[in-house]
Each structure stands twice: as C-alpha cells, then as structure tokens.
Amino acid sequence: MSYISGNRPDEFGLVPDKEGYITIKEFIKAINEEPNMAYVRESHLREVLLNDRDGIFEIDEKKIRSTQRNFCMVNKEEYLTPSPKILFKGVKRKAYPYILKAGLFPGSKEHIVMTTDRDLAVRIARRLDQEPVILEIRAKAAIENGITFYPFGESIYLADSVPVQFISGPPLPKELPPKKETVEKEREIAPGSFILRADRDPDLRRRKKAKKRIGWKEEVKKSRKRKKAGPVEYKTYNPYG
C-alpha cells in the first residue's frame, strides 16, 4: 500500500489527484492484479488503517492517499514536454465508435491517461472492460499541431483532449442488417400435391361434424345474445283492423 500510493502509482497505472488522493475502488483493483492479492477488499484496507499508528495513510470518504509521498505531482505549467512518438490508450468497446467520431476527452477524470507501455494500457483498461479496444495515439503529430502532453512517472502521459485525427484503432465491426419481420405466405400448391379440407371430405357425416365444429363458437355467442335480449314478443296481425 505504501509503495503504490506513496512511491510509484504510475507503475500501476494510477494517477493521484491534485491532493495526492486515489479512489479506493481504483486502488483495490490495482492491488487485486498483483499475484496472490485477488482477495483484498475495502474491509482489509480499513483494517490496516485501524493499526496505522504512524498516520502513513489518510482516507477522505472514498479516497486514500499516503502522507509520505515520494513522487512529483502533475503540474501542467512545469511539465510541458514532448512525448514519445506513439502512446497507447485502452477504452471500452461501447465508447469506441463515439471516440472515432469525436476524439478523446477526460470525462469524469481530470486527464486522459495514456502510456508508452501497451501492456500497461491493457491492464488499466481491463479494470472497466475485460475486452477493451487499444488505441494508438500519434503523439508526435499531435504535438506538432498544438496538443500538449504531460508526463507522470516513467511511462504515463496525460492530456486534456486528443482530436480524432491523431487516433488509430481497429476497424469497427460490421453491423448486422436488421431482421426482417417474418410474413406468413400462403403455401403454393405444387403439382401432384393436395390440401386436406373439411368441406371436401367425401364422407358426408364427417363433413357435417366439421362444419358444426367450425361454427360452434358463433352459435354460442348468438344464444348468449338471445338470452340477454329476453323473450321475443309476437304481435298478432288483424287484417280487419
């Protein structure tokens, strides 16, 4: 915990905020990726903090930081420096089509986090998507067009935005055509075939029974209507007035 939060957060793909805090959620995910550390949960962290008599760690709601930090914080005014030719950035599959249209933006984060190490980019992205899309950022070309990158640690670079023309990635999967609604078509009678129909049954008794079965619902409805209407009154006709 001291090494990650106080010495080399960049080695684990973590970028603390201006006050040195890392979200507990990201912190735990980074720990879980280490061998034999997949069991670690927030309760384990808080148990360590209960015994932290020297005050090495501080927690602010859902964030944690080390009080003994040995890394340099990100300073945009001080660290304006060229980046390598190519940087890598992992993104979620759902976000990829939109990135190809609009470019990269920090979203809820303070910066866009990129790295010179492709494996580290994959590691960071898998915290959000198990099968992320890995982008290549043409950093050198972006710098020549006024985009600034800020280094953090040995392999991480940050930016406020990256226009789409400097982003390369795999082709988008082809969209499947929309399914057409199935329409039931009347069967065509092929030569030599025949269709069984009750009204063509040579047996007159079966034909009458079939007609009776077909129309039984209508007869029931008619009888119900007659019952509701009540008895019918018949008037006698007197031809002599």
Would you kindly provide a written description of the structure presented here, covering whatever features stand out?
The protein has 241 residues and is of the alpha+beta class. Among the domains are: 65 residues, Arc Repressor Mutant, subunit A (Orthogonal Bundle); 83 residues, Alpha-Beta Barrel (ADP-ribosylation fold), CATH 3.20.170.30. 29% of the residues lie in helices and 15% in strands. The chain contains eight helices and nine strands. The strands form three sheets. A three-stranded antiparallel β-sheet has the order 1-3-2. Strands 4-6-9 form a three-stranded antiparallel β-sheet. Strand 7 and strand 8 form a beta hairpin. The radius of gyration is 38 Å and the shape is elongated. The N and C termini lie far apart (115 Å).
